[in-house]
Amino acid sequence: MIRTTPFHERTSALNETQLWSHWSGHLAADRYQMSDKFEYFAVRNAAGIFDTSPLFKYRITGKDAEAFLSGVLARDIRACQPGNAQYTCWLDDRGFVIEDGVILRPGKDEFLLTSAEPNYAYFADRIGRFDVKIEDVSHELGTLAFQGPRSRSLLKQLVPQMEHIPYFGVAKGEIGGAGVTVSRTGYSGDLGYEIWIDTPDALHVWDTLWDSIEGQGVLPFGLAALYMLRIEAGLLLLEADFDSSRYAWNDAHRSTPLELGWAWMFRDLKTDDRAFIGRKALEKEIADKTSRWAMRGLVVDWRDYDRVYNDAGLIPPKDHAPVVEDWMLYDDDYERVGYATSFMYSPMLQRHIAIARVRPDFAKFGTKVNLEFTVDHHYEQVAAHVARLPLYSPERKTA
Amino acid sequence: MTMTAPKPTKSNKSGKNGNGAKSTRATSRADRTYDAIVVGGGHNGLVNGAYLAKAGLKVLVLERRHLVGGAAITEELRPGFWFTTFSYALSLLRPEIIHDLELTKHGFMPLLMSTTFAPGLDGDYLLFTQDHGQNQQEIARHSKHDADAYDQYSHDMEMVCQAIKPLLDMVPPDIFSDDPEEMIALANVGSRFKKMDKRVLHNAVRLLTGSAADFLDDYFDSELLKGYLSSSSIIGTKVGPRSQGSGLVLLYHSIGEHDGEFGAWAFHKKGNGGFTQVLARAAESFGAEIRLESPVDSVITKDGQATGVALQDGTEFYAPVVVSALDPRRTFLELVNPRELPDDLVENIERFRFQGTSSKVNFALDALPIYRDLDGSQFRGFTNIGPSMDYLERAFDDAKYGWYSQNPYIDCAIQSTIDADMAPPGKHVLSCFIQYTPYKLRESDWDSEKENLGDTVQRTLERFFPGFGDLVLQREVRTPLDIERTVGLSEGNIFAGEFFAPQMFFFRPAPGWSQYRTPIDGYYQCGSGTHPGGCVMGAPGRLAAGQILKDRAKVGAPSSKTRVAARV
Asked: How many helices (H) does chain B have, and how many strands (E)?
């Protein structure tokens, strides 16, 4: 029997389409309404609520928790002081990315790590002699992402403590009398928060939140809208833009954190004395400049795109629904110089955009590449230029 | 990229306090000299000014009112309630303009309308969503025949639109010229038609010259569906669905593209006023100066050459290029002395048909109206009060004989269901586009009939949504006379001149003057009265800018600014 999330009773009543995906063994709404783009715009223009409960969640506690995590996580967890959160990743000893996730640090010796895939064994087997406890609390917590320009002003009415938390800050408070943790995190690239709720309180918190936002243009949103948001926001998706090195058959399916655009996580590597898994390989990659790829945004030249369709007598399709597959990128001599992995028509940018990886010599912003796709069942190439990720990043996200 | 909420009014150094004209009178002539002056800060004036500024010209846009936008404005008539006073939706805006003027950097935000609701007279309705299969089922409730007929119709329309669409983005060739360049351009247009599939070409001609009713009757049985579809054939025009010429209006309302969706109509954040604020920011970012509360009295000419403009208060601004974004009547008969123009042009403009026939009635609502057992989500888009072609044709009958429709066509949009910033929480704004309301009333006038029209509209809405009247917090009625007085559009015609074949393409606004130039050197036209016409398209503004820049390049005019034009 497929699992449902702690909010299912409410989300299923709201899901007019009855379209569901299976996400980590849970029912997750694809879209609540006939139009996913309408949900998308609610997030960009007001706010939206997304049930992110199917994520795996691990509580890591104990006096050695920080020391333990310093060794297994690649980004320096010591820089994440209590009351904050951090986007992090963990590597294998060859320096390839296993996974990424957000980790919350509600207290000095208390952490909450999320991941897309199960990672309990991976972490538990590496505790050794540390005084650390790791629990899989995936089912004990329900999580709601509350994202969009109105999220702060609406949520502060329920949880005043969250009003001034910075980007990736964490606050504790109550909603309808139930204790909750609020983090300023999310997967939309917008101003937004995630609310962490004990499962028994889930419906009560949902109802309190739902009642408080009535008439404010807030909509529940599903995976379809989320995937649009995350591509504009340049947020990578496992098994779409990269794969876990644990299960990859060869290195073509593995990526280093530098290849995924996460060099910024290691800005302070020189003064960081941790011995963490993958460090040596990472240092060697930096020193020898052996990264195979650079992670970049791609903005398609609209004139060129329209031209190939108009020449064929077709209406140029501009579909906001993301397509996740390999799209080849070439230079003008038809040599492959990279590949795009997530492609869509962006409402905020009014362009086709993609998340792509390009050869380092094509990584400079503005570099022209040619994106290949098919028109009338034959290959066509259109010009695109390499751009910085995220492609859409409103000031309010971090302000 | 930043997203700032559109401001209700455009503030700048001269317009903000309304006394800018006095202070500039003291400035030197050099300070009041520009490369180009655009008269009128409606969407086409702003587009034109932005393109010229982007090309490096020193541009001044003069707007009569306290805010830019012309007919595309959003106003807070009641605290927290924002009304799209006149123009209220987007579709035909040319995508090139979004890209060329980098509008996404300035807050361009197309908001999807996710439903279309068309209540019928018998208590039933059509409710379209973004789910194609569901729409087929919905149509089949009314006519099993029409379910796939609708797909066939949509496909046939799209093929015509795709074939015709490039005409919107080109300067019409001058068919009266012997210039080889013009003859080649004409041949190119001809070859476009020659390349068309027979069926597509025939459909195109049927639409361009015939009636929407004839076209739709070939496909459909359902009166409700035909009522809904033919509603797009009368907008802004004094035709009924059975009039020859309504096909052209239908075609225009199907040929747009919104947020990448072909033929889609939708909304901009904070309404069309939100959109023109984006345009103004874009124009200013390229260096254009926008002066509010600066009504232009006339264009100054010397030896058949435009040299500047005089404001109503006497202030003069100078430029070798003056562009009128006003309608053809004002452009040719008011801003300049018609005696400076050829007689045939003056005659053509004098008989150019305006005859505005549309009004707006806007409501502030205490809550969403109730329709039977529907939950209100059907209002997330247009609600079409046009339950059959007969209904629309009868509404037109009233107008034929000089009166407003007693059962009017109403295109409703509760924009606050799409953009929560338009109304306080739980409250709503309802924009109603009304037809027919002829500019000239038989033995009466709009000052006398204005509120009666409001009552007629409210009564009509009450018929479809019992209890509607109890929800009304405030009502605003804008007749064709108000449109003329407030916006300046002659006879309140929303397209700055009717959409009918003798006033389109080569002939818009007059034979021989469809290329944005005028008989006065340096004096240009860029309003919706030029090709391709009205709706918030921006194409006239853009195409006119292209002509101006081309002419300047020919004479090698230097730019007073040295900065390099921004990248396209």
From this structure: 18, 21
